[in-house]
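Thread: "does anyone have the structure for this chain?"

Original post by V.I.:
We have the sequence but no experimental structure in hand. Need at least a predicted one for the grant figures.
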Amino acid sequence: MIRSFGFPASITALHLFTQDASLKAHPAYREAKAGGRDAALELVVKLAAPWLGEQRSRFKPGVNAGRNPALVPEKKFVRLIKERFGDEITEIFGVEPAALTANEAQYLVGFQSVDQLRNRLAAAEQEIDRRLRSKGIARAPEKASSGASADQSLNAAGLGAGDS
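Reply from O.Q.:
Generated one for you, tokens below.
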């Protein structure tokens, strides 16, 4: 599945955690971190759903974890990414350039070639594997594709802010 549409400019980001200790203490965390989809779903159902119910009348804007608090990328970054990489971003990450977040676009525009980007992706995946193995976690195998799994975000690939 390819992410084709980005966030509307009017969207407000909300955040469940300001500290991740309670998330990491959950029994399903390690399996979810290793790529277990059922465990990830369990985390959402057990942690996020009750919080949403309790807070629904009090939602206030939060702070984006990236450097840029905007969710919508600048048009010049989207244009540069399309010019520089063509369809490669969609093939590698399963995200069309116009659907990137502001932080994703700002990060990707710093790469001068698709080879440079692919090398960084490979290094990030190796680093994630090393970190998980150091914690005794084996990564769940991913289905082979021409690029990264389409439902894997840039942050999941270790390209965004903090992945530990």
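V.I.: this helps a lot. Residues 70 and 83 are 23 Å apart (CA to CA).
O.Q.: and Residues 65-164 form one domain.
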